Amino acid sequence: MPAGSDLELPRTWRPLGVRLAAGFFGGVLVLLCLFAWFGFDESIRDRFTLFQRGTILVLGLMAGSLGHALARSRVTATADRLVVVNGYRKREFEWPAAVAVRLPPGAPWATLDLSDGTSVPVMGIQGSDGDRARVAVRELRALLDR
């Protein structure tokens, strides 16, 4: 862990806007589909085959899993490592491996530069969160600098 940091660890950063949008629009989509389905006459609903119903269900599950993947993205700083969760992929880095974090203007999310010359997207800090994202980047930079 970086010595002398003012932040209490463990510290987790999560995207607010993406989580709100995934929940809100996912709920609206489910309600819209339910109202449409029950708005049909029974004779119309009977025309749907089992395959068509299954296809609609699979598409809904796919949309839900994408929303869940985006909403679960996060960055967690612990005493001994930095954990980056992007969707369903989790990566752990020792503190010396993380060199810098950047969030250029207009970028969709932050980027973590690694000591081996590669970089990793950090979807837990979304540029669309505005000041909240800039504060998260400053806090993470303070941890990396110590």
Distance between the termini: 8 Å
User: What portion of the residues fall into strands of 2 or more residues?
Assistant: 25-35%
Number of strands: 7
* Assembly type: single chain
The order of strands across the largest sheet is 1-2-3-4
CATH architecture of the largest domain: Roll
Would you list the SSEs in sequence order as H and E? EHHHEEEEEEH
Percent of residues in helices comes to 40-55%
Give the mean pLDDT.
Answer: 93
Using the CA coordinates, give the radius of gyration: 20 Å
Q: State the CATH topology of the largest domain.
A: PH-domain like
**Strand count, sense and closure of the main sheet?**
4 strands, antiparallel
User: Can you tell me the residue ranges where pLDDT is under 50 for at least 5 consecutive residues?
Assistant: none
Structural class: alpha+beta
Shape: elongated
CATH top level assignment of the largest domain? Mainly Beta
**Please, how many helices?**
4
Number of domains: 2
Write a structural description.
This protein is α+β, with helices and mostly antiparallel strands. The chain folds into 2 domains: 55 residues; 73 residues, Roll (PH-domain like). Helices cover 46% and strands 26% of the residues. The chain is built from 4 helices and 7 strands. The chain has a 4-stranded antiparallel beta sheet. The protein has a 3-stranded antiparallel beta sheet with strand order 5-6-7. The chain is elongated and about 70 Å long. The N and C termini lie close together (8 Å). The mean pLDDT is 93.
